[in-house]
Amino acid sequence: MSAVEETPKDSAPRPVAKATPSSSAVAWLLNLLSSVRFGVALLILLVIASMIGMLIMQQNVEGFDKYYAELTPSQKLLYGSLGFFDIYHAWYFNLLLLVLSLNIMLASIDRFPKTWKIVSRRKIEAGRQWLLGQEQHAEVVIRDENPTTVAERLGASMRRAGFKPTVKEKDGRVYIFGERGAWNRLGYLAVHVALLTIFAGGFLTAQFGRDGQMALQPGSSSSEMSNLSFHLDQVTTVPVELPFTVTCTDIQQKLIQKDGSIMANNTIDWLTWIRITDETGTREGLVHLNEPSDYRGYRFFQASFIAFGQARNITLKLTPQDGGAPLEVNIPRDGSATLTGH
């Protein structure tokens, strides 16, 4: 049987829209920005830049002036011109973060509808040619057996393998569909959200974060922290004002071996009690060695210590010259003790 379609004489042909060079360029750019290969390439470049920042000391790190003085003139010129001494604030590093974030968002938007369609609308029935075109397929010939019985046997095998089978009959054919872990197809969204969160946090910290050091000892107060700013061989101290005042009320050093030294290798923990005062009142805080204290977006943690010799308390073991039992005297910081009978 043949069919002939006749176009009416009075009907005009429909115009065919042609793509302009500008629309083609925009489409090419969007396809590039949403490409997974392009995103992987950007991620590799970002990792390389981060490794450079790890291997080459950054200018905001204490000790950079000595590191910079030991470099050769060619290294100073090359690293300085490429921005390696402050790579996390370099324009190309921020551009990599921006383009990679845009690539992740566009790739997610481009692939989510297809993924959601597969998850929500499962393709239970499929033609023979489509099945044979899959990379993994197998063909089995079963003769003289009821299709319903075959479907039941295959369904039981799928259940034993952990699949959830679905049996459907259409146009005299029986289709058996089984799957497991369908929601795993959306796992890439969790990875994309995690990467975007890390990138956003890193960018905001680099652009708007402030850090510094505050030297504290019992009884001292301060409303600012100091930060060393290095610009190649120039070192300056930059004060950073705080919206509150921090007062150190007490410091305690816990030793691993009580009879050992008070150096860092014999210290298991540092405890610093602080009192924070602002317009809202007073708040007590405790800073541990690995347990910082947070207040109004600022985080206080133990950075270093200087052994002044001002112990929280000392215990003296005194032996009288004229004989007798030794005496133990505990003297607190800025305190005194009286010997009994002397």
Structure description:
By secondary structure, this protein is of the alpha+beta class. The chain folds into three domains: 24-118; 124-179, no CATH class; 221-310, no CATH class. The protein has helices spanning 21-33, 36-55, 64-69, 73-82, 91-120, 128-132, 147-160, 187-208, and strands spanning 164-170, 173-179, 221-231, 234-255, 267-278, 281-287, 293-295, 298-300, 313-318, 327-332. The strands form four sheets. A four-stranded antiparallel beta sheet has the order 3-4-5-6, with no helix packed on it. It has a two-stranded antiparallel sheet with strand order 1-2. A hairpin with a 2-residue loop joins strand 1 and strand 2. The radius of gyration is 36 Å and the shape is elongated. It starts with 20 loop residues before the first helix and ends in a 10-residue tail after the last strand. 5% of the residues are buried.
Give the topology.
Elements (H helix, E strand, L loop, with lengths): L20 H13 L2 H20 L8 H6 L3 H10 L8 H30 L7 H5 L14 H14 L3 E7 L2 E7 L7 H22 L12 E11 L2 E22 L11 E12 L2 E7 L5 E3 L2 E3 L12 E6 L8 E6 L10
Antiparallel strand pairs: 1-2, 3-4, 4-5, 5-6, 7-8, 9-10
